[in-house]
Design a protein that fits this description.
Elements (H helix, E strand, L loop, with lengths): L27 H35 L8 E5 L5 E5 L1 H24 L7 H29 L12 H22 L25 E6 L1 H23 L4 H21 L1 E7 L2 E6 L6 E5 L3 E9 L1 H4 L3 E4 L5 E5 L3 E8 L4 E5 L3 H16 L1
Parallel strand pairs: 9-11
Antiparallel strand pairs: 1-2, 3-4, 4-5, 5-6, 7-10, 8-9, 10-11
Helix pairs in contact: 1-2, 1-3, 2-3, 3-4, 5-6
């Protein structure tokens, strides 16, 4: 019997390399571990949240025969109550106080991006443990003060008990955050700084702007409210005290919102200038000789610790975060970094690098 030789280009069974036992991708185990951790985290928040909800709902109903209706629900300046709620209202208030945070914890557990940073995980586990202690503690104090009392006005609550509840919630949150934050974040791999060539004797300017629509909306509503309050005061509908309180609250909110709702970024041969508000004042200037390099990078509020001017502990970086997305990042010659949310950040970074190259040449 004649054995047919293998066709050209096709390895024979004896020489064909075996892939048995060889991992297809080195990233698969890490992804599996991350997925398992996410499932455990989601299961924990669902089970824990259901248990907390059950306690908040069942305990007041089980004690309703020994409670007055309405209940004393607020104490200020001493142990004597000065506010009340019906049993149903107090029950719904406790469930709402917990339910909003519980829904947020579930959403963050499903949206893994928020928990991809060590700071995000610390906040998540902190609220996971600390907020239920606070909510259950508040309900427990309310029930304790009203238990066996015929009238809500006689429900006495010592002030030190409130301090104990707040302190216990803080300790639980801090411990859970420290234990659940996990390993430090991996250092960011900075992209290659973009660059461009400037013609000899030519000077270019790049201007970018970012607006936070939520802050603009808040400022607009606050401004309208201030105008309404002022008009009512001018017509004599509001007394002087109400007018003063209204303007004292609404005017600062309007000014603060308008001053922080937008950021203007300018790049020229002098360096980088970041201005706040519609008039670009106050502003922050980084001279060109203090800049080592610049690049564009996508960042989210979860990665930098929230919105506004953020500085993460243990880093030398500061981020001005108005919205997630493109950020212009500048590294100083001293080693620190500054980032600001702005559209078309890569073009601004390229121009900064071009002026920097001219300055050192």
């Amino acid at each position: 019997m004649t054995r047919r030789p293998p066709s050209r280009g096709t390895p024979s069974p004896s020489t064909r390399p075996s892939t048995e036992g060889i991992a297809v991708s080195s990233h698969t185990p890490a992804r599996n571990d991350e997925g398992a951790t996410s499932r455990v985290r989601l299961a924990a928040v669902l089970v824990w949240g259901t248990l907390v909800t059950a306690v908040l709902a069942v305990v007041p109903l089980a004690l309703r025969d020994r409670l007055p209706d309405p209940l004393a629900a607020h104490w200020s300046g001493g142990s004597t109550p000065d506010g009340h709620l019906s049993l149903t209202g107090d029950l719904l208030a406790g469930l709402l106080l917990w339910g909003v945070v519980w829904a947020a914890l579930i959403g963050f557990a499903l949206h893994r991006t928020v928990l991809s940073t060590r700071l995000g995980r610390a906040y998540w586990w902190g609220f996971f443990a600390g907020w239920p202690v606070f909510v259950l503690g508040v309900q427990g104090l309310t029930l304790f003060a009203n238990l066996g009392v015929a009238d809500w006005r006689r429900a006495v609550l010592p002030g030190w008990t409130v301090v104990v509840v707040i302190g216990s919630a803080g300790v639980a949150g801090v411990l859970a955050g420290l234990l659940g934050r996990g390993a430090p974040d991996k250092p960011r791999e900075h992209p290659r700084p973009p660059s461009l060539r400037l013609r000899p004797g030519r000077r270019a300017v790049w201007v970018g702007r970012t607006v936070n629509p939520w802050l603009v909306g808040l400022s607009t509503v606050s401004l309208l409210g201030a105008l309404v309050v002022g008009a009512l005061g001018a017509l004599g509908t509001l007394n002087a005290e109400a007018l003063g309180i209204g303007l004292l609250v609404l005017v600062p909110v309007t000014l603060l919102g308008l001053g922080t709702a937008s950021v203007g970024v300018r790049v020229d041969q002098e360096g980088l200038r970041v201005g706040f508000g519609p008039f670009g004042r106050p502003s922050r200037h980084t001279p060109i000789d203090q800049i080592e390099s610049a690049w564009a990078e996508r960042r989210t509020p979860a990665q930098v610790g929230g919105w506004g001017l953020r500085a993460l502990p243990g880093t030398r970086g500061v981020t001005l975060m108005l919205r997630g997305g493109d950020c212009l990042v500048v590294r100083r010659v001293t080693g620190g970094e500054f980032a600001v949310s702005v559209d078309d950040a890569e073009r601004g970074a390229a121009l900064l690098n071009a002026y920097r190259a001219e300055a050192v040449s």
